[in-house]
Each structure stands twice: as structure tokens, then as C-alpha cells.
Prior knowledge:
Layout: H1 3-14, H2 32-38, H3 44-48, E1 54-56, E2 62-64, H4 76-80, E3 97-100, H5 114-118, E4 124-129, E5 132-138, H6 148-152, E6 158-161
Antiparallel strand pairs: 1-2, 3-6, 4-5
The structure holds iron/sulfur cluster (3 copies).
Amino acid sequence: MSDGVNLSRRHLLRGHLKAAAPAVQLPWSLPWPEFVADCSRCGDCLSACPEQIIIKGDGGFPALDLGLGECSFCGDCASACQEPLFRPRDQRPWDYIAQITEGCLANGQVYCQRCQDSCEARAIRFIPVLGRVPTPSVDADLCTGCGACVGDCPVGSIKVASPAHKEHE
Ligand code: SF4
Ligand code: SF4
Ligand code: SF4
């Protein structure tokens, strides 16, 4: 039997077909269809996370809420999980990067550089423009997607997502 058929059978048996993928999955976790096929929703990852940023998402499956804090990439969620749901931790945890959306105060000519101060990786830069408030840009090579900037933005204008979902350059 192929992996695809096995996956479909497990979906049907567990009734997980309607669980929507969260905006931010756990670091190192498998692609969503594989994750929901084997996640028992035991909650061990939630209690293991020292940052307390793992929440119960759609269908009771774990998701990250980076508005609650940043991911330190400690790996405790993956270590706590009894199921084969996580990739080896010597790999990149994910391809997420920070994305700054339209609501950024700088777009309305309001001075703010709080996100730059939040970022230990120094991935957020402000380029001075004559006569205008500088706007932030994210260096995709430096950004780890940790989310420290997400909760620190006073107007909630930063999200973390895969580059394919990027809304604004
Ligand atoms: S890697 Fe650590 S901080 Fe990040 S979600 Fe997992 S347990 Fe929480
Ligand atoms: S913290 Fe938010 S509002 Fe302030 S510059 Fe950064 S993205 Fe814009
Ligand atoms: S997600 Fe983390 S590394 Fe990326 S810009 Fe925000 S604070 Fe910096």
C-alpha cells in the first residue's frame, strides 16, 4: 500500500479531514497532512514549551501563536512528542520569515522602529528616505522567523509566514 493511501486511511479513521492548517506550525514539524494524520492531540508539546506559545488550534491540534512570545528553537516541543511528527533538529526548523504588512505605522508617516529593537538577528533594517519616515524591511537571509518582532509591534503589523505567502516586498 502506498504512503498516500495509508495517509488517507488514517485521515478517515481519525476523522481529521477538516482540521485547517494553522498560520504557524510547530518548528521542525512535518507537513500538515502528515502531522494531523498522526498527532493524538495529547497536549504534551503545549506543556513542554517554556515560552508558552503553543496553543490548541483548529480541531485541537497544536499551533504556534507568536503574538504570545517568540520561539527560542529549544526543541522541547519536538522532544516531548511521542509520535514521529518532527524532522531531525539539525535541519532548519522552518522556512518562515517575518513579513511586514500594510498597517505598519511608518507607512502612515508615524515614526516607529520597535521591531528593529526586538530583533536579535538584526534582520530588520530601516533605510532613510529624504523627507519621509523610514520604513522597515526584513533581510530574508538573516531572519529566523522566531517571531520576537510579532508581539512587539504596537499595531500588529508583522506576521511570520513562508516566503511564498509574502504579501508585501
Ligand atoms: S522550539 Fe521551544 S520555544 Fe519553540 S515552540 Fe517548541 S518548545 Fe516552544
Ligand atoms: S514595530 Fe510595527 S509599526 Fe513599528 S516599524 Fe515595525 S512593523 Fe512598523
Ligand atoms: S522573526 Fe525574529 S529574526 Fe525575523 S525579523 Fe522578527 S525578530 Fe528578527
